[in-house]
Amino acid sequence: MTRSGPPKADETPVSQTLPEALQSDAVVESREGERDVPRHAAPAGNGAPAGVQATQRAARRVTFQGVDYYDLSSLLTDEQRMARDTVRRFVDERVMPVIEEHYQAASFPRELIEPMAELGVFGANLPEEYGCAGLDNVAYGLIMQELERGDSGVRSFASVQGALVMYPIFAFGSDEQKRHWLPRMAAGQAIGCFGLTEPDFGSNPAGMRTVAERTADGWRLNGSKMWITNGTIADVAVVWAKTRGDEADGAGGVDGAGVGTIRGFLVERGTPGYAAPEMHRKHSLRASVTSELTFDDCEIPAANLLPESGGLKSPLMCLTQARYGIAWGACGSAMACYDEAVRYSRERIQFDRPIGGFQLTQAKLAEMLTEVTKAQLLAYHLGRLKDDGKMKPVQVSLAKRNNVHMAMEVARTARTILGANGITSEYQVMRHMNNLESVYTYEGTHEIHTLVLGQDITGIPAYV
């Protein structure tokens, strides 16, 4: 939606970056009096003809008021609240008007990359010295929530860019690698992807077959990766491979085939022997680029090794960052579905009354709101633990497992309230439902996170 005039005094224009918004007077004024508004409520229908009501529904999609039954906003800092509200407006005005067309066309909305970069959402919790927003982890989580409220594919793009590419460069890269890539990626001038999963090794990444062999001038990569978000459009891939001839193999151990530890490598677009064909015919994450990565005697310079990486722990640390964002993002999908179900229940007339007036519908809405609220509080406290340096990977597993499952159930329940209309593109619940089927599996399946928790509870691994 394009604004018809200048922003009001209590609004932050989406053209502002997050740092600019956080420094403005609007930080204090942006939500003055918001606690008097029932944020779980939605305006009722007005009896207009069906065609007019459809137009009104479309208009209301870009004025999302949030779902905050336990007044989580009162626990947020001004900075966190402003980050949420800025991205919420961006989603209303820039994402919602185009996302359904891109989903139907199975295309990623690349026109959103530049404005997302201008907002500062890429690597938003990384230091400002690299051109990032330098926000805390609760603010970062709220950004992921709002992006996924628009679409899981949009959140996935930002999550991969920040948590799976910028983070490993920041955590394991050389100073030169950080200075070269992080500012460009924060500005959206370079896109990245993360190559860990392979065709035959998903839940068991330690079994990967991709190998990096030491050469006189650098490394030679052979192997393949599968289900890689952003792969085809990426300027650089963070690729994880087992090494041969690595000096670190003495510490990491070498198996009978002479294969040593797992290291991270930067593989740039256009490198001979590297290809990233896009995967098509998807029913889920259609507004996202999913690719295969192949390496056929792919030669890269020694400088492209992430020097501080070593062992499976390195890519798993990256996945912890991404799973944290998913725990928040799933709340966004659930909020979108719940909000749409509430609106629909007030507008849809059956037996001469809104279906929201029937006990079965109210029971569904009450259960949805309860689960959304529990997941929001879980994500918020996880963020506080992360900011305090106390977060454990198993806690992230619990949050990812719970919140994605919750979002799937909310989406499915919302679809039942919308009836047959729920499967059409006029509404968003089916798009969210389909997307969540992928989110349920990637970054660690629901079942694997269950076993992670089981091992932590009992001390007994049960993976095999």
Secondary structure blueprint with pairings:
Elements: H1 18-23, H2 26-29, H3 50-60, H4 78-105, H5 113-119, H6 137-150, H7 152-172, H8 175-186, E1 192-195, E2 211-214, E3 218-229, E4 236-244, H9 249-252, E5 262-268, E6 274-275, E7 290-301, H10 313-347, E8 349-350, E9 353-354, H11 359-387, H12 393-418, H13 429-439, H14 446-458
Parallel strand pairs: 1-4, 2-4
Antiparallel strand pairs: 2-3, 3-7, 4-5, 6-7, 8-9
Helix pairs in contact: 4-6, 6-7, 6-10, 7-8, 7-10, 10-11, 10-12, 10-13, 11-12, 12-13, 12-14
Gist?
With 464 residues, the protein is α+β, with helices and mostly antiparallel strands. The protein has helices spanning 18-23, 26-29, 50-60, 78-105, 113-119, 137-150, 152-172, 175-186, 249-252, 313-347, 359-387, 393-418, 429-439, 446-458; strands at 192-195, 211-214, 218-229, 236-244, 262-268, 274-275, 290-301, 349-350, 353-354. Strand 2 and strand 3 (218-229) form a beta hairpin.
Largest sheet: 7 strands, mixed
Radius of gyration: 23 Å
The ordered string of helix (H) and strand (E) elements is: HHHHHHHHEEEEHEEEHEEHHHH
What is the quaternary state of this protein? single chain
CATH superfamily of the largest domain: Butyryl-CoA Dehydrogenase, subunit A, domain 3
Helical/strand content category: alpha+beta
- The number of distinct β-strands equals 9
Please give the domain count. 3
Gross geometry: globular
State the end-to-end CA separation. 52 Å
Strand content: 5-15%
The CATH topology of the largest domain turns out to be: Butyryl-CoA Dehydrogenase, subunit A, domain 3
Overall mean pLDDT stands at 88
The total of helices stands at 14
Question: What is the CATH architecture annotation of the largest domain?
Answer: Up-down Bundle
